[in-house]
Design brief:
Length: 204
């Protein structure tokens, strides 16, 4: 008779690491050692190219390759979400980002909605005007500063935003091939980078 003791033991280890983990996460957890054993560098010439640029232009180690990979991932993300934005008549990621940020803050100044999403100010203000004209945002004078106007989501804007979130559930999972631990470490690393660059951006 087959013993399931080893599987049960691994299940207990998995739950200790991630109590909220799903069966899919557990499957990745079980397959992780096998995947790690067969990882190979399929683009040695590309790595040599990055190394050459690093030496020639005195880049920090891995900066060139990391920038390239982040750029490619952003391209993938744009491709995965394009059909959702097209269906709901959102022009780009920035329009979605503004709606989501205003929803998160409940209400904020136009300047905050633009700056927090790293959008050029004149471009962002024009974008917010279009969102207001489409009935997705509502604006009003800021009682604390008459020079500013506050924006919040209209019911129409909130419905569109939540339809966007629903649409995202059907697009490609960008972290699909990563284990639970890899996802956690990856997100932690991204947060560290985002925190640093956010602080740097705010100082400028």
């Amino acid at each position: 008779m087959r013993s399931y003791l080893e599987l049960i033991t691994k299940w207990e280890v998995f739950l200790a690491e991630l109590p909220e983990g799903s069966l899919e996460d557990f499957a990745h957890f079980l397959l992780r050692p096998a995947k790690e054993a067969i990882v190979v560098d399929t683009e040695p010439s590309l790595k040599e190219y990055f190394d050459k640029n690093t030496d020639q232009y005195n880049y920090q180690d891995h900066n060139s390759e990391a920038s390239f990979l982040i750029w490619r991932l952003n391209k993938f993300l744009k491709n995965y979400t394009k059909s959702v934005f097209d269906t709901l008549q959102l022009n780009n990621q920035d329009e979605f980002a503004v709606l989501a940020h205003v929803d998160y803050l409940k209400e904020c100044t136009k300047k905050t909605a633009v700056q927090d999403n790293l959008i050029d100010m004149s471009t962002g203000i024009d974008m917010i005007k279009r969102l207001i004209n489409r009935g997705l945002l509502i604006d009003r004078p800021n009682p604390s500063d008459k020079r500013e106007r506050l924006v919040r989501l209209s019911d129409k804007g909130r419905n569109l935003l939540y339809k966007t979130y629903e649409g995202f559930s059907h697009v490609q999972n960008i972290l699909v091939s990563m284990s639970v631990e890899e996802k956690s470490q990856f997100v932690s690393t991204l947060k560290k980078l985002d925190d640093y660059h956010t602080r740097h951006q705010l100082k400028e």
